[in-house]
Amino acid sequence: MWSLLGLLTILQNVLPTQLLSLLHSLWQSLQDSLTPYSYFDVPEFLGSAAVEPNALYRHVQLYLQRSLLVASSPPPPRLTLSLPRSASVSGTSSSPTAPVPHVSLSPNHSVADTFEGHRAVWTHHADTLQDSLEERRSFSLRLPKRHAATVLPAYLAHLAAAADHLERSSRARRLHTNAASPTRAWASVPFCHPTTFDTLALDPALKARLLSDLAAFAGGAEFYRRTGRPWKRGYLLHGPPGSGKSSLIAAMANHLRYDVFDLELTRVATNADLRALLIQTTNRSIIVIEDIDCSLHLTGERVIVFTTNHVDGIDPALLRPGRMDVHVRLDACGPHAVRELADRYVGVGAGHEMLDAAEDAIVRGGAEMTPAEVGEVLLRNRDEPEAAVTELAAELKARRRDTDDDDALRQWELSDGSPTKKGRKGLGWEGKVRILGRLRSLTKSDSGRR
């Protein structure tokens, strides 16, 4: 044995490189002709640039994770279990909605599958690139050589159908943000936002219109295919900071059960970088772009949400249908939104005198507060419902634009039900209004938060 190894070492040093390559190719061909198996590689990304995701890799990943790894017999010798921290706090082990760990095949390990009486073996590969912490991941499939040509197409169709069903029925969705990495453009965490259309304080007519439009889009696969239109829908959300743009996006994602790709344009240096990011987004996703001024060419069941605080600054050519199909103006709270927020936050329903005063300040006085501002007032008084709605009414009174005297607050202060009449400690309501005005001037910000 040692003499053979020594001879091989000598030959490597003596023989020309071209001859060694030829001998290696001949040896590889001999091995391939003698092996009873055919091998198929499924890389995570396509091409040498590793930019465009391989949809088949995602299908294999889902299929193995949900259908094969836990139920296979015998089980794989090594599995990787993971549970994000954000998921671990959303449930308990005794709860029926306790989070389930993510199961994946460990690198360089294999798992067997059976399809129509034929044995298929999947192996997971993860190779670290030189001078980099990036990994190139792939799966390899081994099938009997004499049946591979007939089995492979049917097996891949079965795998894709199973993966699509699993992806649609899965409750796990993710929030993706663009990361500063040349080969892995997106980083993701579980999407656990609680806002839904049921909890969103939105004008009922606007809410119904949005729900109808989203339903038509999600169920429109055949229509988009028949008409040749790209299966995408663009929404422009515009309004001042705190008007609820982020909450509406979360409600849309929860309603459609789509992943969210939050594209931070300040991290994008060139148009080529932007194209690479968009290529790596997946179907059934919402792509969120703030302060957009570019054109996107995407297809494949995607909702694209553009947000801006200043719609007047956008090129009118970008506002046309096909780019931004639905324009949604999110503004200050109307009476309906104030009632809904008060009921949800502190349990005070319609008909309360202070809510009537607050609504009067909005309707007759032109007072304006965003949903975020109303929510903050109610949140800090959530243990005292009467104080919450009274402070809200006082704040809206301070923001009135008309000059009419509003006696509702003064009448409330002198009534038997008022906190001051009951001996509640604190300043009078005129003093509170003055303090609220000072606080508002100190906390006003021109930040660009959504």
TrEMBL record:
A GO molecular-function annotation: ATP hydrolysis activity
Superkingdom field: Eukaryota
Residues of the signal peptide: 1-16
Compositionally biased spans, kind Low complexity: 81-97
Keywords: ATP-binding, Magnesium, Nucleotide-binding, Signal
Domain AAA+ ATPase: 231-334
Assigned protein family: Belongs to the AAA ATPase family. BCS1 subfamily.
Protein's name according to its UniProt entry: AAA+ ATPase domain-containing protein
Organism of derivation: Eleusine coracana subsp. coracana
Lineage of source species: Eukaryota, Viridiplantae, Streptophyta, Embryophyta, Tracheophyta
